[in-house]
Amino acid sequence: MSFVETEERRALRDAVAELGGKYGSSYYVEKAKSGQKTDELWAEAGRLGYLGVNVPEEYGGGGGGIGDLAAVCEELAAAGCPLLLMVVSPAICATIIARSGTRDQREHWLPRFADGSVKMAFAITEPDAGSNAHRITTTARRDGDGWVLNGQKTFISGVDEADAVLFVSRTQDQKGNLRPSLFIVPTVAPGFTFTPIDMEIVSPEKQFVCHLDDVRLPYDALVGDEDGGLLQLFAGLNPERIMAAAMGAGIGRLALGKAVGYAGSRQVFRTPIGAHQGLAHPLAAAKIELELARLMGQKAAWLYDEGDDTGAGEAANMAKYATAEAAIHCVDQAIQTHGGNGLTTEYGVGMLAGVVRLMRIAPVSREMILNYVAQHSLGLPKSY
Q1: Rounded-to-integer distance, Cα 200 and Cα 289, Å
Q2: Which of 83, 357, 377, 379 suits 189 as a labelling partner, its CA being 20 to 30 A distant?
Q3: How far apart (Å, rounded) are the C-alpha atoms in residues 255 and 362?
Q4: 3-class state of residue 41 by DSSP
Q5: pLDDT tens, 185-208?
Q6: Which residues of 312-340 are buried (b: 16+ CB within 10 A; e: fewer)?
Q7: 232 and 180 Cβ atoms separated by less than 8 Å
Q8: Torsion of CA 230, 162, 12, 81, to 10 degrees
Q9: How far apart are CA 165 and CA 73, in angstroms?
């Protein structure tokens, strides 16, 4: 692993940053507040190949790794366009299908992930299960040459703009530890309904409660093995954490950039306020924390792309934790640097607070990450 990105990765970042700058924060916020979607940005990113950089070349993608896709996600977020569905559709769903899908599934879905012409949501969280995936109650039972699914999921992102949802379930006769079964469910499938959840976060992507009531699917809706085990699931969850870390890094960079720009130009007592250590030092500390978190994110992506799923799991959890903390620090200090202006719409800093605060909770809470590190990295007894 090199601590300096390749020339190709840096060129990718530059190109994506240029695209993000074409749209920017004002575009993103306007879409979010008006209840619209960022369809133009998504379509252009897909057409330019940025959404499919991690899809194998034989299916129309760039043949790169999760590190390349994370770079795309980070640069768009740093430009003011943190696309949540990037964490879900090309990262989780495309990766799982590329790894575990049948040839027909790969040929059908991967080219469409690569060009951005399809979006797929991901459903694992349930109201009564929380972070305990072993308590999942969504079930699939064999029925003739197909399946019938029943269950409920909550806090599922972007269902209203997705073509299908990848559901995590268990087969009806499974007992004990979860051996997840993964099913692709079209959003138009009879018996599949979804209801929006009112959220306080400014985002074009909405959250939903999903209901499966005797949803009938063909046998080939199953992705991977019927009892594929957790490795099949974590093929998508490690990229999810890596992408969440990348998005947090981008938002942290955005907030820090706004703060530095303001501190360098705002004058109250004859000199720019950034000359005062009371503001300069907290901004410098936030910069240090952010760069350290970005390094862990790059390490996690490198380990994953090298095929080290165990090492990537530890690093991805650490990266997600560190980046959430760093991004919160960056946004909080950016608001403080702007003073009252930090809470105005004009400066676009205050609205970032809810987004980065969510990162301590999702896609996995900081407490569960600490549990993971305590148990798996430090070897302490399991606490839950």
Answers
A1: 27
A2: 83
A3: 20
A4: helix
A5: 999 999 999 999 999 998 999 999
A6: bbbbbbbbbbbbbbbbbbbbbbbbebbee
A7: yes
A8: -110
A9: 21
